[in-house]
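[Meeting: bench + compute handoff]

Bench side (C.D.) handed over the final construct sequence. Compute side (W.E.) agreed to return the predicted structure before the next meeting so the bench team could plan truncations. Sequence as handed over:
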Amino acid sequence: MLVPIDWLGEYVALAEDATGSQVAADLVRVGLEEEGITGGGVTGPLVVGKVLTLEPEPQKNGKTINWCTVDVGDANGTGEPQGIVCGAHNFGVGDLVVVVLPGAELPGGFAIAARKTYGHVSAGMICSADELGLPGTRDDGIIVLSPVEPSSPVEPSSPVEPSSPVEPSSPVEPSSPVEPSSPVEPSSPVELVETLVPGQDAIPLLGLDRETIEVNITPDRGYCFSLRGIAREYAHATGAAFTDPAQGPGERAPTANDDGFPVELRDEAPIGGLPGCDRYVARIVRGIDPAAPSPRWMQTWLTEAGMRPISLAVDITNFVMLALGQPLHAFDLATVTGPIVVRRARSGERLTTLDDVDRALSPEDLLITDGGERALAIAGVMGGESSEVSARTTDVLIESAHFASKSIARSSRRHRLSSEASRRFERGVDPLIAPAAAQLAAELLVEFGGGSHDTGVTDVGKPVSPASIELDPELPTRLVGVAYPTARVVEILREIGCAVDENAGRLIVTPPTWRPDVTTGPDLVEEVARIDGYDKIPSVLPTPPGGRGLTHEQQVRRLVANLLAGQGFSEVLSPPFVSPAVFDSLGYSDDDPRRSALRLTNPLSEEEPLLRTSLLATLLQVVRRNVTRGAGDLALFELGQISTGAHSKATTYDVGCYPGAAAVQEIIDAVPDQPRHLSFALCGQVERSGWWGTGRDADWSDALAAGRAIAEALHLDIDVAAGDEAPFHPGRCAVLSLSDGTRIGAVGELHPKVVQRFKLPDRTVAGELDLAVLVEASEAVVEAVTLGHHPTATSDVALVADETVSALALERSLRSGAGDLLESVTLFDTYVGDQLGEGRRSLAFRLVFRAPDRTLKTEDVNALRDAAVAAAARDHGAVQRA
């Protein structure tokens, strides 16, 4: 929100020498973050200039510049026209522009000097709003000044007349149909005066001697979207006297009577149990002059606050909204037959809004209608074309209403129409300020537009009063850690507008109507800490409790990640969203359970609406992305969650209300399982080639080695068996499982068609393991084994068996037959040939024996070897090859 310092000073007593930076620092102390300060950053000659000549000159780079001569009066010391090069094209000969002369300095320390450019010596610069630090962008072009008509009244330099007290508000666009409620575009802050003379000082003309603070307003501080709210916060920070700008109009506002314009509230479908409109104030002003201009001080303040002055009616509604925080809506009374009926939209109903968009309305949209039939506006968001105030409007119906924040927020998001009015209403507007806002708008219309306001006053509905909060006076001390005496707590709460009563040692606190964000005891504690001063809260380093550390699952994840990183893998993190077509790319069969994926209701991309059921579905896309960018040798892994397709659909509930414990449990039960998996992929060379020799490409054995290394690091005995499952090559796939048969995952070379669909290098290998299974299996306590100091003894055996007998089966038999002295078994050779016979193969194993208490003799080793071979013969019919 843009806060002009001069305007702020009308509502709170600023120091005479107060600067923007000082005021911003005071606001920061109460939690209002400063975004920037504009104005006051220009030094040196900045004057009005009149364009005498303008010669376009095309350049070789395709750009066209203008060589201009500009009359700057005597400001340059010679009275001669100034030659200036300008790249903008939104001005012409005879226009009055803003010129900065050599010797000046613009915001940001940009010094101006005469310099040669594009073949000319440019003695100065014709300025845009952006270059002067004013609201606007460089694309808006340079500032073109325009004098007002001679008949236009010129206001005194003091921006606000004492008879027109107003309350500040954040610069928000009103919902008034006279101006679209889409965000108000800032304009070049051009001061309108009766005469403009070349050489005239432009610094006061543009308000550059005045400063404007841009304040970042958090969503919970909606009351600060007004100068009224900002002034109140400044008073809290400094103790300066605060003058409520709503107090004067509120005192003058007449009470409701039967002569007002008829209004009916018919919200038959309230959202969250609250009516969409709980107060509607209407006033009528007749006989205004449609051509009457806005006063100069009002145009200046609106411009400094980031709003473009348009017309008297528009400017007044914007001014009141910025001052008091209450959005107004003005209807052309001639287009309304009455009564005004506030109701929900009907199915199929449509409305053309002020931005010329024909909108289909939802039954949840709250409407302002004429007689309950013709829609006039989407309440609190934007008005309709049919009742817009035009250049012919003489009679105006002013709407000052209070709408439910939830209802307005939903309509704004549904229509993707965020207006200044909706941004205020969805954050909460003071329901008691509506009469004062309507009264102030009516008075300003009468004062500057002529005419008169009707004696009839409409004020229907009754807003809900803020609920009282029972507060333990010791709670601020307990939560913040700073001693706050009860008297200080009461003082602060009353300072921010709360009503405080004491009852049996407890405080009964009723928040002010402009603070809908204060609903609980901790909210009040936050206010106490904020107003007393965040700087008074000491920085204390908390002491963590002892005896805690990483969980077993966290330890396993770190161990696996470090292991793979140590083997040359790089960890990646891929988004969990996939397209339905990825299942075909992975070669899943039609009945593969991994095709049953959870579909998101509001996906980030309509092309990827599903949650992945396999990490490889997204990891292979990361591999492809890296390959297409020239990284051919890759070793990547990812630890992430997948989503199983098994889930039930839960009932949805409105936000803001607790549906009950049973409903919450139903929602939790409907969430699908999301186990954590590990996937990895390798392509290209795993051993680089160079002067030292030929390298080696990744193959299925590297994927299997990675799986074995993980199991060994977790002290798990795993079984490896040939597998045939997508997305792997049916002859080069291994399924890993625990000794009890629990499946861990699969590794191997990807199917050639999968490689082709993903556009990966040939013979890419990968694997995916269920990390949850590894975590659970590794929870058993592992006993340390004493290192043997006696030498090992080796014996090689070659066993001939049917090709259907796996190497794993033979290894198990050898282990069982050899007994406890067998330290390791390694398969080191295979052979198939005519000598063995059809369907037979030879597998050569190296057996390593070690005894813990002695050195084994040859006869001991031979006996152990023979026992191992006998077990293989018994189990699988294997015979030892001579």
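W.E. noted at the follow-up: The mean pLDDT is 88. C.D. will use this when planning the next construct.
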